[in-house]
C-alpha cells in the first residue's frame, strides 16, 4: 500500500496488485467482522451447559473427534476468516489460563458483538461502544467480587472442591460418573499440591487411558503407570520394595564413533569377539546388581543376549521407556536418571513399595504399575472406556476438572453457576447505566443484555422456554435480592443454585468477562479490511 498525491495535493492510496484484492471499509467492515464472530459463537451456543449437545469433527486424515469442549471444537475446526480465528484464540487463551469456561467465553463474545451491531445501526460510534463495554466489564468484575463466597477446604474436608468439579463435569459426556471422576480429580490435585504456596504443578499428574472396561473402572494410582511389560516373559511380575535403576544408556557394547571394520577370518577370532561382548554385558549387569538394584528401567532397547543374561541373573528389566515417563518415575521414586553405568551408585536408585504387571481382558495388553513410591507427589489417573473417542473426551473432561480444582486452591472464592452470576451482573450493570450521562450508557445497557445470553442459551439447550424462564429467574433475583437464583437445567425443582450445589470458580468467571470484552473491543476498532480476493 502506498500514499500518493494528485496535482491539487489531494492524497490517494495506491494498492499493489489492486485487482487481486478486496477491500471493505467503515461500517461494512465492522458488520462483516461482527457476522464472522457471531457465526463462530452460534456453533458453540448449543454446546453450553449440562444439556448441551456434542459436536463431531472429522480431520482430513479421517480421524473422528466427538467433543463438548469449546476449545477443542474450535481447535479442530478449519477456520479461514481472520476474525473467526480471533474467536478461536479467545477460547484457547481461556483454556490455557483457566482450563474451563471455553464455550461460555465465545458465546459471551458473540452476544456482545450482536448488541454492538444494534448500536452501530443506531449510529453510535464504535469507539464509544468499546468504551461503554470497558466500563460495563469493570462494573461486572467488581460485582462478581461482591457476590462471591469463600469456602474453606483442607486435606480432610474436600466436599466443596468435589462439588465444583462436579459442576464442570456435568456438561460433559461423562456426567453419569461425575461424582467418582470429581473425587479422583480432587484427590490427584491435592496429592501434588503445595498448599503453603497455594500452587499446583499439573505436569505431575499423568492422565493415561486404555480402551476396554467401563468408565466406572477409572482409577487414581498413587504412582506411575507404564504402557510396557517386562522385557522377558519369565521375569517376575511382582516386585516388592523395589530399588529401581533408571538408565538412559543402552545395554549393548560401545560402538566406536569413527568408521570401523572388523575382519574375522578364523573361528577363534569370532569366539574371542563373542567372549568379549559377553564380558561387556556381564559387567553391565553386575554393576546394576552390585549397587543393589532389583529392577532396571532403560530408555533404550537391549538385544536378546542382554535380555537372556538379565533373566539369568534375576534382574527384571523394562525397555523402551519414553523420556517424559522416565522423568516422572525419577520424581515419584526419588531416583536419579543415570546416563552411564560407571555413575551408578546406591544413592541414585529410586524406591517403590510395589511394582506389578497387570494384564487387561482377553488381549495381550499389559501395563506396569509403580506404586507406594518414596515421593508420592506424582500420580496417574488411569481411564477406561468403551472406545478411543470416549477415552479422549474423558481425558479432556478430567483436564477441565483438574484445572478447576487447581484454580480453587489458588483462589478459593466461588460464584454460583446455572447463569445466576451472569443474571446478577446483568441487573447490576443495568442499574449502573443510569449513572453515566453520555452515549456510553447505551453500550452499558447493551452489555447487560449480552450477559443474559448465557442463561438464555442454558435454558434453550435444556428444552425450557428461554425468554419466559429468564424473565422469571430475573424477577425472582430482584424480588428476593438473591444472586444465587439461576436456570434449573436439570429440572431439580428449585432455582436456588446454592441448594443445587452448582459452583464455579470466581477467577474463571472474571476471566471470561475480561477476555470477551477485550476481543470485542479489538473487533470493533477494525474499520478497514484489505484481503486477497478468492480467485
UniProtKB/TrEMBL annotation:
Compartments where found:
Cytoplasm, Cytoskeleton, Microtubule organizing center, Centrosome
Keywords attached to this entry:
Acetylation, ATP-binding, Chaperone, Cytoplasm, Cytoskeleton, Hydrolase, Isopeptide bond, Nucleotide-binding, Phosphoprotein, Ubl conjugation
The Gene Ontology CC terms held by the record are: chaperonin-containing T-complex
* Molecular-function GO terms, alphabetical: ATP binding; hydrolase activity
Q: Which reaction does it catalyse?
A: ATP + H2O = ADP + phosphate + H(+)
Role description:
Molecular chaperone; assists the folding of proteins upon ATP hydrolysis. Known to play a role, in vitro, in the folding of actin and tubulin. Component of the chaperonin-containing T-complex (TRiC), a molecular chaperone complex that assists the folding of actin, tubulin and other proteins upon ATP hydrolysis. The TRiC complex mediates the folding of WRAP53/TCAB1, thereby regulating telomere maintenance. As part of the TRiC complex may play a role in the assembly of BBSome, a complex involved in ciliogenesis regulating transports vesicles to the cilia.
The UniProt similarity line reads: Belongs to the TCP-1 chaperonin family.
Subunit note: Heterooligomeric complex of about 850 to 900 kDa that forms two stacked rings, 12 to 16 nm in diameter.
Which PANTHER family does the annotation name?
CHAPERONIN (PTHR11353)
Q: Under which name does UniProt file this protein?
A: T-complex protein 1 subunit epsilon
The record lists the lineage as: Eukaryota, Viridiplantae, Streptophyta, Embryophyta, Tracheophyta
Amino acid at each position: 500500500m502506498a500514499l500518493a498525491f494528485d496535482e491539487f495535493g489531494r492524497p490517494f492510496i495506491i494498492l499493489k496488485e489492486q485487482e487481486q484484492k478486496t477491500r471493505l471499509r467503515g461500517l461494512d467492515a465492522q458488520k462483516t467482522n461482527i457476522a464472522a464472530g457471531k457465526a463462530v459463537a452460534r456453533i458453540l451456543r448449543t454446546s453450553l451447559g449440562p444439556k448441551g449437545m456434542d459436536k463431531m469433527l472429522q480431520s482430513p486424515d479421517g480421524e473422528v473427534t466427538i467433543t463438548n469442549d469449546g476449545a477443542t471444537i474450535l481447535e479442530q475446526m478449519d477456520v479461514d476468516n481472520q476474525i473467526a480465528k480471533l474467536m478461536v484464540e479467545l477460547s484457547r487463551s481461556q483454556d490455557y489460563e483457566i482450563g474451563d469456561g471455553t464455550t461460555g467465553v465465545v458465546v459471551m463474545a458473540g452476544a456482545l458483538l450482536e448488541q454492538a451491531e444494534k448500536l452501530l445501526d443506531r449510529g453510535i460510534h464504535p469507539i464509544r461502544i468499546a468504551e461503554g463495554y470497558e466500563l460495563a466489564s469493570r462494573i461486572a468484575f467488581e460485582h462478581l467480587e461482591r457476590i462471591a463466597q469463600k469456602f474453606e477446604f483442607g486435606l480432610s474436608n474436600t466436599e466443596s472442591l468435589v462439588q465444583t468439579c462436579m459442576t464442570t463435569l456435568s456438561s460433559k459426556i461423562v456426567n453419569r460418573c461425575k461424582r467418582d471422576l470429581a473425587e479422583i480429580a480432587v484427590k490427584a490435585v491435592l496429592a501434588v499440591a503445595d498448599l503453603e504456596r497455594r500452587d499446583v504443578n499439573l505436569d505431575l499428574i499423568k492422565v493415561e487411558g486404555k480402551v476396554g472396561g467401563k468408565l466406572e473402572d477409572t482409577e487414581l494410582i498413587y504412582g506411575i503407570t507404564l504402557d510396557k511389560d517386562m522385557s522377558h516373559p519369565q521375569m517376575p511380575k511382582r516386585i516388592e520394595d523395589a530399588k529401581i535403576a533408571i538408565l538412559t544408556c543402552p545395554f549393548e557394547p560401545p560402538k566406536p564413533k569413527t568408521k570401523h571394520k572388523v575382519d574375522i577370518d578364523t573361528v577363534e577370532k569370532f569366539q574371542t569377539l563373542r567372549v568379549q561382548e559377553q564380558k561387556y554385558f556381564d559387567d553391565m549387569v553386575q554393576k546394576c546388581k552390585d549397587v543393589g538394584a532389583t529392577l532396571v528401567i532403560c530408555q533404550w532397547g537391549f538385544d536378546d543376549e542382554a535380555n537372556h543374561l538379565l533373566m539369568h541373573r534375576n534382574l527384571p528389566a523394562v525397555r523402551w521407556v519414553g523420556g517424559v515417563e522416565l522423568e516422572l518415575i525419577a520424581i515419584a521414586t526419588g531416583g536419579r536418571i543415570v546416563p552411564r553405568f560407571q555413575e551408578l551408585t546406591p544413592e541414585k536408585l529410586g524406591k517403590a513399595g510395589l511394582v506389578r504387571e497387570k494384564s487387561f481382558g482377553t488381549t495381550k495388553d499389559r501395563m506396569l504399575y509403580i506404586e507406594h513410591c518414596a515421593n508420592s507427589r506424582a500420580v496417574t489417573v488411569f481411564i477406561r472406556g468403551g472406545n478411543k473417542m470416549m477415552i479422549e473426551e474423558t481425558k479432556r473432561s478430567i483436564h477441565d476438572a483438574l484445572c478447576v480444582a487447581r484454580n480453587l486452591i489458588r483462589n478459593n472464592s466461588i460464584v454460583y453457576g446455572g447463569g445466576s452470576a451472569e443474571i446478577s451482573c446483568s441487573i447490576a450493570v443495568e442499574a449502573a447505566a443510569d449513572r453515566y450521562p453520555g452515549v456510553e450508557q447505551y453500550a452499558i445497557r447493551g452489555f447487560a443484555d449480552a450477559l443474559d445470553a448465557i442463561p438464555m442459551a442454558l435454558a434453550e439447550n435444556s428444552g425450557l422456554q428461554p425468554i419466559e424462564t429468564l424473565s422469571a429467574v430475573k424477577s425472582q433475583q430482584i424480588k428476593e435480592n438473591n444472586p444465587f437464583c439461576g436456570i434449573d437445567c436439570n429440572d431439580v425443582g428449585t432455582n436456588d443454585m446454592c441448594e443445587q450445589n452448582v459452583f464455579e470458580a470466581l477467577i474463571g468467571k472474571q476471566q471470561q468477562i475480561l477476555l470477551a470484552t477485550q476481543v470485542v473491543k479489538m473487533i470493533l476498532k477494525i474499520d478497514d479490511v484489505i484481503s486477497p480476493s478468492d480467485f
